[in-house]
Amino acid sequence: MQPLNLESIRSDRTDGPFHKYELPGLLVGIARQRLTGRLLLATGGDARRTIGFDDGQATLAGSNVPAERLGARMLERGVITAAQGVDIDNVMASESVKFG
Looking at the whole model, is its pTM more than 0.70? Predict the structure, then answer.
């Protein structure tokens, strides 16, 4: 697996299809080149996943697929109860913060 060399396409906004690259190589390229920004992963459907990077380090991950969100996963695995999930949602709404 060869990491993607983003230097040849680097600009203030690097976007476009990366379908010819494997995700691991893309992530290694971002880490090795210590890039900062967000990588949007989209399929042909409505699903969108985002990975945020700061100096090549992944700092956040997000998804618009409800079943992939942290709260849903924790509830599914029994880490939190439904009541705790509601409490978390209320705190997030009142303090304008995100869970995870």
Answer: no
